[in-house]
Design brief:
Elements: H1 2-7, H2 11-34, H3 44-64, H4 71-74, H5 78-89, H6 94-101, H7 110-123, H8 126-137, H9 142-146, H10 161-179, H11 183-194, H12 199-206, H13 211-230
Helix pairs in contact: 2-3, 3-6, 5-6, 5-7, 7-10, 10-13, 11-13, 12-13
Length: about 230
Amino acid sequence: MHIAGQYEHHHDRCKDCYLFVCEKLNDNGFHRLLSFQPEGSATFRSWLNAVIANLCIDCRRQSQGRIRPFKSIGKLSTFDQMVFKYSFQQRLSLQACLASMQARFPDLNEFHLASTISHLNEILTPKQHWLLSTRQAKTVSLDQAEAGGPQLEPIEPGPGPEQSIAESQARDKLHRALAQLSPHHRLLIKLRYQQELSLKEVARLTRLGDPFRARRHIQAALDALARHFES
């Protein structure tokens, strides 16, 4: 109910969304709940929050239609588009976003995800930031506003000056950290995340033998990147 309230502020629509989520979780013998992988890196709570958020989006689409993505986002990689969907459209937390994406990108970590979110935040125009904020605001009804419910405050289009400076500094740090990696580690990160190759393809191109060994090397590259970033 708490998550449903983040998508539908009107009391009646919130209850409808809650019932929709419960019905979908009950479908096909609770197949969604049974798909949780206990051995994964995400906790059940974070994973369930992501599932419920997706269902709340489905409920809104049934009543309001599907929101078309921005053309500039549609030109990005599949990975970037997924991050945009979970972080900007569905407004999931970093942990919930990570839990949603690790099924497809098992070697993804918080550092890489946060860097991608920062990059997306930079390429979005002020108008696009404003459109995203208004899409979220449309869930508050006029009846609730007139009854003295939470009032919408005007949102500044795009990030504020302090946030922009912080993000710019973080990007500079990331570029410096990448430059300090060995050529082998930089190549692994480029193949896996920029070109979005599978672990099998990375293993073949870098002659690492098998996907499991490639994954270990990629993780070592990410660990080294994180150390350089922090230092």
